[in-house]
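Hello Y.,

Per our agreement to keep a running log of every chain we model this quarter, I'm adding this entry. I've kept the format consistent with earlier entries: sequence first, then predicted structure.
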Amino acid sequence: MSRDLLSDVLTLVRLTGALIFQFEVKGPWGVAGEPLLTKFAPLLPPGTSNVIAFHLVLEGECWIRHAACDWFAVHAGHVAVISHGGRHELGDQPGRPTLPFEAMLDGRPLLAARNLRFETGPGGTSKVLCGFLGCDRRAFEPLCGSLPPVFQVNLGDRMQTLVPYAVANALDDSPGAEGLRGRLAELLFLGALRIYLRELPANASGWLAGVRDPVMGRAMQAMHAEPQRHWTLDELAATAASSRSAVAARFSEVLHESPMRYLTRLRMALAARLLTDSHKSLAAIADEVGYESPAAFQRAFKREFDMPPAAWRKNATETTPRPEP
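Predicted structure for the entry above:
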């Protein structure tokens, strides 16, 4: 049975839904924020190095600007994903002056944000479902690096059941609702990501394109199934039902690295997750990811993450202060 590589990798980067709320404005409006530098940061688990934002337009339209792209329109039924975080602005039209997101809370705790409603004057109504997720992109840079800073997809009918459910729960304060909102944020992002993957052009490069490639996909499946195995290029080629040269060429063209370099990065990602989630010794982790020598494992880990495994484990277990209720 083939492995779901996308789900595997999302586990490695620890995708964590932190917040989802509805934003509704009648009249002219503009808002700007940078999640990692606002009250949002304390909601994130230790080890979070990136915030993914998404804005799903439920009614009207929303214009968005980011450092990577000028103002663009997002219409009802479409979702814009800000993959790499950073400051971005939203408004009812391009160039609209913006207020800081914190000002929209009017002193309320961030976790109390459910349905932020405003009436600013004459004009149409914009209704947007906003979600924010944390992840540790260091744990598997090939996935995060393959995403553009901003992308937009049309959810169409694919998520016609999930979206109303997410909206209803964004407004819910009953027990368990906070945890459910986080899971819904993750599901909406994953749904948008799967649509983006299906719509990639044939000549696309990057990790997501590799997953879809018939030759690379089979080789990657094999490495993810047995990362500790001492793979050779001949073995990977046989698994991919291709030649050595074809496998090497596809990795070079799509991922800009060799299959063996990809295997090393995968092993280090698995090791980083084991360091975070388990109390296993360095020797046990080294063996589990295919290194006979703990010293060789530690050298490889430091080359990949610019810190030794012990420092990674220490950083991952540091606590992050929670916001006041």
